[in-house]
Write a structure and sequence with these properties.
EC 2.1.1.201, EC 2.1.1.163, binds S-adenosylmethionine, menaquinone biosynthesis, 22% strand, Rossmann fold, demethylmenaquinone methyltransferase activity
Length: 246
């Protein structure tokens, strides 16, 4: 299947993913800036624009899954009004620890909370949240269909699912530069900054194996979402998928 890393089984894939993020947690934010030349900030802002959280004191509960060190939740909190609360859910305690420290440094710890959990089996009741976001996370989840089903389950009717993920570069010329960058620059850069080239080799392979935007949109529909759409940014390096639970 296109979800596995090389030929590892599903359970082993999660173990491998966990090792990757335990290994890189402390340098994760720095690596994002280096690898994307800061572009991940632009892509994340585009996601927050799409989310468009209310600027009022009306209650608004965001669930940010695979939220890692909190980037999406913090950005949303900055854009939102006083009624905003975010729950960052991630399977990896090291990433969450970094996130908690960052929340305190930003004085956002009263509005953003961090909980350990698996995207495939969320520990929240049905119809709890006003929005669900997942940024650069769903690619790491072994059974994407389960994660999408859980997203649908925990969303209130009338609320939105947004997924930011690496996609397929479709601009002639850029695709070759991107390949070169992926295979020749990222792993050595990963080794230099985190001491771990293998984790960044995983990153590159997992991007390649992720479904094409149309196929992924179909999976989102299959989970029950309506008005599914997507747009690609930066020549297809990333795509933002959107769906509504109606
Ligand atoms: N959303 C953050 C961002 O954009 O900076 C972090 C993205 S990071 C590339 C991917 C995250 O997915 C890691 O923190 C990892 O622990 C988490 N993850 C992997 N598998 C998961 C799962 N099954 N459930 C929840 N989180 C998972």
């Amino acid at each position: 299947t296109h979800f596995g890393f090389r030929d590892v089984a599903l359970g082993d894939k999660q173990t491998l993913v966990n090792d990757v993020f335990h290994s890189v947690a402390s340098r994760y934010d720095l690596m994002n800036d280096l690898m994307s030349a800061g572009l991940h900030r632009v892509w994340k802002d585009l996601m927050i624009n799409a989310l468009n959280p209310p600027r009022s004191d009306a209650p608004f509960a965001l669930l940010d899954v695979a939220g890692g060190t909190g980037d999406i939740a913090f950005r949303a909190a900055k854009a939102a009004g006083t009624g905003f609360r975010a729950t960052v859910c991630d399977i990896n305690s090291d990433m969450l620890d970094v996130g908690r420290e960052r929340a305190m440094a930003r004085h956002l710890d009263d509005r953003v909370s961090f909980v350990e959990g698996n995207a495939e089996a969320l520990a929240f009741p049905d119809r709890t949240f006003d929005a669900y976001t997942i940024a650069f996370g769903i690619r790491n989840v072994p059974r994407i269909d389960l994660a999408l089903g859980e997203a649908f389950r925990v969303l209130k009717p009338g609320s939105r699912f947004l997924c930011l993920e690496f996609s397929t570069v479709d601009v002639p010329g850029l695709d070759r530069i991107y390949d070169l960058f992926s295979f020749k620059v990222i792993p050595p850069l990963g080794r230099a900054v985190t001491g771990d080239a293998e984790s960044y080799r995983y990153l590159v392979e997992s991007i390649r194996k992720f479904p094409k935007p149309n196929a992924f949109a179909e999976m989102i529909r299959a989970a029950g979402f309506s008005r599914v759409s997507w747009q690609s940014f930066s020549g297809g390096i990333v795509a933002l998928h959107s769906g509504w639970r109606l």
